[in-house]
Amino acid sequence: MSEKNDYPVKKVSIICAKGALEDVYAALVMGNGAVMEGIETNLFFTFFGLEAIMTKYQDHLHTGTVGNPAMRLPGGARLPTMLGGLPGMESMVSKMMRKGMDELDIPGVSEFLELIDAGGGKIYACKLAIDMFKVKKEDLNEYVSDIITIGEFYEKAGGEGSHIIFT
C-alpha cells in the first residue's frame, strides 16, 4: 500500500568519511539512486572517505575485516572476528567482495562517480581533510566539482525537503 508523501525529498547531501569499500559504496549507491530519482544530490568526501575520490586509490579500496561482527562473505558465510586480523585476510575478502559486485554488474567507484556527475549530482572534497592529508587537486577524480569547507557544504545542503546522510 503506497501513501502520498506530503513532504517529498528534494535534495540529499551525503557525507562519506570512511574509506572502506562497504562505506564508500553505501554513499555511491545512495547518491546514484537519488540522481536516478531526479533528486538534487551532493556527495561530500572527508577524512578517509577521500580515498574514494583519489584516482590512485578509488578502484583499490578494501573491506575492513577487523572489528566488524556482522562481516559476511559473499554467499552468506560469517567471518569470525578473530580471523579478520590474519595476514592477507583483508585483501582476500576485498577481492571476494569486488568479485561479488562484478557478478551483479555493480559499477566500480570511478564509474559510479562518472554516473553521478552525468546525472547532475555534485561531488565535493572537504578542504580540511585535503589540507590535513596534503592532497592536491590533481590527485582527485575529474568529476570532483570543488574542494569546499564544511560551512559551504551546509549552505549547499539546506532548503526545504533536504536531508543529510552520513555513511
Structural overview:
By secondary structure, the protein is α/β, with parallel strands linked by helices. It has a single domain (11-64, 90-166), classed as 3-Layer(aba) Sandwich (Hypothetical Protein Ychn, Chain: A), CATH 3.40.1260.10. 33% of the residues lie in helices and 15% in strands. The chain is built from 5 helices and 5 strands. It has helices at residues 21-36, 89-103, 109-118, 127-132, 150-157; strands at 11-16, 40-45, 122-126, 146-148, 162-166. The protein has a 5-stranded parallel sheet with strand order 4-3-2-1-5, sandwiched between helices. The longest helix has 16 residues, at 21-36. It is globular, with a radius of gyration of 17 Å. The two termini are 29 Å apart.
- If you compute it from the alpha carbons, what radius of gyration comes out, rounded to the nearest whole angstrom? 17 Å
Number of domains: 1
The share of residues in helices is 25-40%
Low-confidence segments, given as residue ranges, are none
So what's the overall shape? globular
Q: Approximately how much beta-strand content do the residues carry?
A: 5-15%
Strand order, biggest sheet?
4-3-2-1-5
User: Which structural class best describes the helix and strand composition?
Assistant: alpha/beta
**Average pLDDT taken over every residue:** 90
**Briefly, what CATH class?**
Alpha Beta
The CATH architecture can be named as: 3-Layer(aba) Sandwich
- What is the strand tally? 5
Q: Biggest sheet: strands, sense, closure?
A: 5 strands, parallel
CATH topology: Hypothetical Protein Ychn, Chain: A
Q: What separation lies between the terminal Cα atoms?
A: 29 Å
| Annotation field: number of helices | 5
Give me the CATH superfamily.
DsrEFH-like
The topology string of helices and strands comes to EHEHHEHEHE
